[in-house]
Design goal:
The protein contains 2 helices and 6 strands, in the order βββαβββα. By secondary structure, it is mainly β. It has one domain.
C-alpha cells in the first residue's frame, strides 16, 4: 500500500512479549518510492525502552499499514518533551535490519541503529531537522 503522508497520534501495538506499545508515528512517501516511518517518543510502553526492540514496533507498522518491508525506512525520534523541537541530528536514529522476513510474525530482525547526519536526511530527499517542519512531526 502506498501512503503519501499519514500522522498517527497514538499507534497502539502489542509486542511479542505482550507488552503494550503506544507512540506517535508519522508515515511519508519518499521520492524514491520507499516509505519513511518516524516513530516519536513513547506515550506508554509498560516501563520498557522502545529502543531495545525497534524490530517489533517497525514490524507492527509495516503489517498494520500493509507496507513493503523492502522499501521501508525506520527512524526513531528521541525527546522526553513533545513540545520541544528536535533540531540536533542525534535526536534521530535510523535503524536498518539484517534480516527481513515478510511472512514472519516479526518481519524485521537484527536491528542496527545509527544517529542521523545531515547527509542522511539529504539522501532521503528531506531537509535536516531545524531547516524544515520535520522538527514538528512528532
Amino acid at each position: 500500500m502506498r501512503i503519501e503522508r499519514l500522522m498517527i497520534q497514538e499507534f497502539d501495538f502489542r509486542g511479542l512479549a505482550g507488552s503494550e506499545v503506544r507512540c506517535p508515528v508519522r508515515l511519508q512517501a519518499l521520492r524514491d518510492g520507499r516509505t519513511l516511518a518516524l516513530a516519536g517518543s513513547l506515550i506508554h510502553w509498560e516501563s520498557q525502552d522502545r529502543t531495545a526492540r525497534p524490530e517489533e514496533l517497525a514490524s507492527g507498522v509495516v503489517k498494520t499499514f500493509r507496507l513493503d518491508p523492502f522499501a521501508f525506512v525506520w527512524i526513531e525520534a528521541y525527546t522526553a518533551v513533545r513540545d520541544v523541537p528536535l533540531v540536533n541530528d542525534r535526536d534521530y536514529c535510523r535503524f536498518t535490519f539484517g534480516c527481513v522476513q515478510p511472512d514472519a510474525r516479526t518481519i524485521f530482525r537484527d536491528a542496527r541503529g545509527e544517529f542521523m547526519r545531515t547527509e542522511d536526511w539529504v539522501e532521503l530527499g528531506l531537509l535536516p531537522p531545524g531547516y524544515s517542519t520535520l522538527s514538528r512531526w512528532i
